[in-house]
Amino acid sequence: MSDLLEFQDAFVEALAGGPTVLSPWLAAADAGEPGLSVYRNTIARGCVDALAANFPTVATLVGEDWFRAAAALFAREAPPTHAALLDYGENFP
After folding, report:
1. Are residues 26 and 39 in the same domain?
2. To the nearest 10°, the Cα dihedral for 66, 72, 77, 81?
3. Distance (Å, rounded) from C-alpha 2 to C-alpha 18?
4. Are residues 48 and 80 in the same domain?
5. In terms of C-beta distances under 8 Å and separation of at least 24 residues, what long-range contacts does 12-18 make, across chains too?
């Protein structure tokens, strides 16, 4: 496996909250955690926003606060499998 592919796989795993396997590429074992938190938050926000765009009627019916909480939970349990989020949430309750 190439070094680049190995790094990319480790980065995706770290973003998903997996054990920090990025240590071979970091100066210190926990040096990347603050930056990863920013990436994780950006991904989570994008998923919630995509679900809100894909299910506007549901968001209106249940209220924005409840919808965003449910969408955040769904995003943690069922992360997107494609980069395009136009169809994300097929199994959203």
Report:
1. no
2. 130
3. 21
4. yes
5. 15/39, 15/40, 15/43, 16/79
| Structural domain of 17 | 1-31
pLDDT one digit per residue (tens) for the chain, 93 residues: 688 888 888 778 877 776 567 777 776 666 667 777 888 889 899 999 999 999 999 999 999 999 999 999 999 999 898 889 998 999 997
- The residue type at 81: T
Please check whether residue 76 is in contact with residue 92, taking contact to mean a CB–CB distance below 8 angstroms: no
Q: 72 and 44 share a domain? A: yes
* pTM (global) more than 0.85: no
- In this structure, the dihedral spanned by the alpha carbons of residues 14, 90, 74 and 31, taken in order and rounded to 10 degrees, is 20
Distance from C-alpha of 87 to C-alpha of 3, rounded to nearest angstrom: 32
What's the one-letter identity of residue 54?
A: N
